[in-house]
Amino acid sequence: MSQEFDYDLVIIGAGVGGHGAALHAVSCGLKTAIIEAADMGGTCVNRGCIPSKALLAASGRVRELRDAHHLKTLGIQLSGVEFDRQAISNHAKNLVDKIQGDLTNSLKRLKVDIIRGWGKVAGIQKVTVITDSGEKSITAKDIILSPGSVPFVPPGIEVDGKTVFTSDQGVKLEWLPDWVAIIGSGYIGLEFSDVYSALGCEITMIEALDQLMPGFDRDIAKLAERVLITPRDIETYVGIYARKVIPGSPVVIELADFKTKEFVDVLEVDACLVATGRIPATQNLGLESVGVELDRRNFIPVNDSMSVLSAGEVVPHLWAIGDANGKMMLAHAASAQGIVAVENICGRRKEADYQSVPAAAFTHPEISYVGMTEAAAKEKGSVEGFEVATTRSYFKGNSKALAEAESDGIAKVVYRQDTGEVLGVHIFGMHASDLIHEASAAIANRQTVYTLAHLVHAHPTLSEVLDEAYKRAVG
Ligand SMILES: Cc1cc2nc3c(=O)[nH]c(=O)nc-3n(C[C@H](O)[C@H](O)[C@H](O)COP(=O)(O)OP(=O)(O)OC[C@H]3O[C@@H](n4cnc5c(N)ncnc54)[C@H](O)[C@@H]3O)c2cc1C
Ligand SMILES: NC(=O)c1ccc[n+]([C@@H]2O[C@H](COP(=O)([O-])OP(=O)(O)OC[C@H]3O[C@@H](n4cnc5c(N)ncnc54)[C@H](O)[C@@H]3O)[C@@H](O)[C@H]2O)c1
């Protein structure tokens, strides 16, 4: 390290993005500090991935054990299944505490200085931190911003944190409303509908766009709706938005047509989860001190090396990763971007490859994908002059899925007709979140269905669903 600076690297925000960057920086020999104003571990550990997956694990088990028809197929009978809401909530809380402790200890063990307070850029290679004991000035050769995101609450919706709440409160599972409205059918809406429906709540799902799960590939969303929504106690409004939500008992929700803005209905429910997306936490970061303007959605503009941009030009020694740059709001994308930033800081040119970053919704069964949807691939094809082909295979033709008596599912491969290059893979079915990684590696290596169709998969495994899809593409 140059003697001129306090640190080689200072990171603002100790979420998964900042944590991933810090671990990699230490492995590259950089003297590193990380600044955190609130909870170590950020959204994912405290209010996101971790508690939500704990709730999904417990509620998924309840659903499975209460599915008498499925158990009977396997030759099993149960006389009754009870659960304790508080104990499920405690499971989530205990997991958060454990992972938060592990994450903090991993930084301490590696001698990353943890500074508690609000960090701000105060010029090139300079940061100030507002701590309990006053303001502190720090210099660093490089600065990574990883301030993350917060829930977006549309205008007209009033959140009281008890009867109308976002996922920040939802993950605490403080009560189980008899009837809960969920606004938004994206990741959070879907995962919470899985939890609430398994635990016996009646649900009304409200989606502003003209189809449920608008972010997912159409074929996958259609089948997922048939399995995850239709047979469950879930009523849906599509093309409708909640223009007013008033907390209380009951919660009053005024619905309107998303296109015409005309009044549609008033709902009176016990609770309302607002799951309408997230916005970057990028205010008061001192970016004006280095001439950086946020983009029109308040994300920090970056290039694929994670360098912060000002009017399209790289700002030296300043990097931004994770939810705050809006490239891909996923935990593993944040830490992968942290590694990219550190590699570039160390003088090794590296760029993020978003095409090969997988995503999953941890419903029962799960949804996962990597790369492009069929619609996005066709759009790219029409610009670049190539045809797109697709192939599908089904869990109902897979021996392992049949043995588990869980044969609802599909895998869809989107590829270039001319070269066979895989452009996207979409899976709905049991263990989809694990199965997707083979496809992710294939896309990272720009492999074709021709080579993939010759790989050998163990029998009988769910991975043969993908094997079958690749073979169908070439056969
Ligand atoms: C309910 C829910 C479930 C989710 N499930 C998944 C999942 O299963 N898989 C997945 O990949 N993703 C999931 N996500 C998304 C995931 O949580 C985020 O993509 C991830 O947390 C982003 O990491 P980050 O480091 O960019 O930001 P964050 O995790 O938001 O961390 C940012 C940190 O920076 C701190 N900070 C901000 N500004 C300052 C400042 N000026 N000074 C000091 N500190 C500051 C904040 O306090 C915070 O701790 C989920 C999100 C939610 C809400
Ligand atoms: N398993 C995971 O990886 C996971 C889980 C949860 C959250 N996340 C991350 O958190 C982010 C936020 O999740 P999310 O589900 O809130 O956002 P989302 O963007 O996935 O879905 C929001 C949905 O709400 C709809 N909507 C917006 N305003 C509305 C209104 N007024 N009325 C009705 N519908 C409306 C949108 O059309 C959209 O379908 C996601 O982008 C995702 O990256 C990931």
TrEMBL record:
Residues noted as binding NAD(+) in the record, renumbered to the chain: 184-191, 207, 277
Domain Pyridine nucleotide-disulphide oxidoreductase dimerisation: 357-469
Disulphide bonds in the chain: 44-49
Start and end residues of each FAD/NAD(P)-binding domain: 7-338
Reaction(s) catalysed (UniProt annotation): N(6)-[(R)-dihydrolipoyl]-L-lysyl-[protein] + NAD(+) = N(6)-[(R)-lipoyl]-L-lysyl-[protein] + NADH + H(+)
Cofactor: FAD
Keywords associated with the record: Disulfide bond, FAD, Flavoprotein, NAD, Nucleotide-binding, Oxidoreductase, Redox-active center
InterPro entries xrefs: Class-I_Pyr_Nuc-Dis_Oxidored (IPR050151), FAD/NAD-bd_sf (IPR036188), FAD/NAD-binding_dom (IPR023753), FAD/NAD-linked_Rdtase_dimer_sf (IPR016156), Lipoamide_DH (IPR006258), Pyr_nuc-diS_OxRdtase (IPR001100), Pyr_nucl-diS_OxRdtase_dimer (IPR004099), Pyr_OxRdtase_I_AS (IPR012999)
An example Gene Ontology CC term for this record: oxoglutarate dehydrogenase complex
Further comment found in the protein's record: The active site is a redox-active disulfide bond.
Family as reported in the entry's similarity comment: Belongs to the class-I pyridine nucleotide-disulfide oxidoreductase family.
Protein name: Dihydrolipoyl dehydrogenase
Name of the gene encoding the protein in the UniProt record: lpdA
